[in-house]
DNA sequence: GTATATGCAAACAATTTGCACGCCT
DNA sequence: AGGCGTGCAAATTGTTTGCATATAC
């Protein structure tokens, strides 16, 4: 993967926020700095950054959101404000239980806790 | 919600499989029994059945899958064959931990375990 | 009789892709 | 020079919606 100003910009936009943005939001931010950037380029680079393991993607309702935090972690999703909050909880026991009870070799766990955040 | 043959058919198709089908798959099955049914009707009824709590929906990649199992449960997702398997694990401790550590009132938990199932 | 459900096709929204040109290396 | 990356627009895909007709109650 060779250098491109567009990709660097897109990556920095994701790293500079904790808000798990959508492709469209990233596109808008990117256009502020680089007005001629195209939405196709944004999508292509998001996919590429994900393939390289530099960002992660989350499936949220009908859109994909992107997350610059590549450490294993989970999410709290507030039903009132829609906020998605990173949360770090140990899942070793869970993993072992599944491994044993279902003869399923766990690779990765994705948990979302739906509910009401402390702001409400 | 009043009776309709289409809705009954759609519901029975979902209840008769454990495969977490997509709208399109359900549409194909439904047309075998009722050739003139439309895809719009399938979508409308899926939404309605979900609103009534008779089925659940799962966000999988770019499509929605439907699940006739409305008991709280989680999923194993095999990276090789793509199968989605129901799994029942207690999450009470997890729930309490989140409640306490993040002042977040948990309503519902969704867990997906990615990995390799016993067939491989 | 009246409101809800249907079939059909057109509209949508998120994402992907083909192509000619541009810019890293 | 050669190939990856870009902008642009058109294509795809999953889902929703408007409308006239049909059906449950």
Average pLDDT of chain A: 95
- Helix proportion range of chain A: 25-40%
Q: For the CA atoms, what is the radius of gyration of chain A?
A: 17 Å
Supply the CATH class of the largest domain in chain A: Mainly Alpha
Can you tell me the number of structural domains of chain A? 2
Quaternary structure state of the chains depicted: homodimer
Structural class of chain A: alpha+beta
Q: In the CATH hierarchy, what is the architecture of the largest domain in chain A at level 2?
A: Orthogonal Bundle
Molecular shape of chain A: globular
Low-pLDDT residue intervals, each spanning 5 or more residues of chain A: none
Helix and strand pattern of chain A: HHHEEEEHE
Structure at a glance:
The structure is a homodimer of 120-residue chains. Helix content of chain A is 38%, strand content 26%.
Describe the structure.
The structure is a homodimer of 120-residue chains. By secondary structure, chain A is α+β, with helices and mostly antiparallel strands. Chain A has 2 domains: 5-67, Winged helix-like DNA-binding domain superfamily/Winged helix DNA-binding domain (Arc Repressor Mutant, subunit A, Orthogonal Bundle); 74-115, Dna Ligase, domain 1, CATH 3.30.1490.190. Chain A is 38% helix and 26% strand. Chain A is built from 4 helices and 5 strands. Chain A has helices at residues 5-15, 23-33, 39-51, 92-102, and strands at 56-60, 63-67, 74-78, 84-87, 105-116. The radius of gyration of chain A is 17 Å and the shape is globular. At the A-B interface, helix 4 and strand 5 of A face helix 4 and strand 5 of B. Strand 5 (105-116) of chain A pairs antiparallel with strand 5 of chain B, so a sheet runs across the interface. Chain A binds a DNA duplex (25 and 25 nucleotides) through residues 1-4, 6-7, 22-24, 36-41, 43-45, 47, 62-64.
């Amino acid at each position: 993967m060779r250098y491109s100003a567009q990709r660097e910009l897109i990556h920095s936009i994701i790293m500079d926020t904790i808000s798990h943005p959508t492709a469209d939001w990233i596109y808008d931010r990117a256009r502020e700095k680089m007005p001629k950037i195209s939405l196709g380029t944004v999508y292509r680079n998001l996919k590429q950054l994900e393939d390289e393991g530099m960002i992660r993607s989350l499936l949220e309702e009908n859109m994909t959101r992107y997350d610059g935090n590549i450490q294993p972690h989970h999410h709290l999703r507030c039903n009132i404000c829609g906020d998605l909050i990173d949360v770090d909880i140990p899942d070793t026991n869970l993993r072992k239980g599944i491994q044993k009870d279902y003869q399923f070799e766990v690779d990765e766990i994705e948990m979302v806790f739906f509910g009401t955040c402390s702001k409400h």
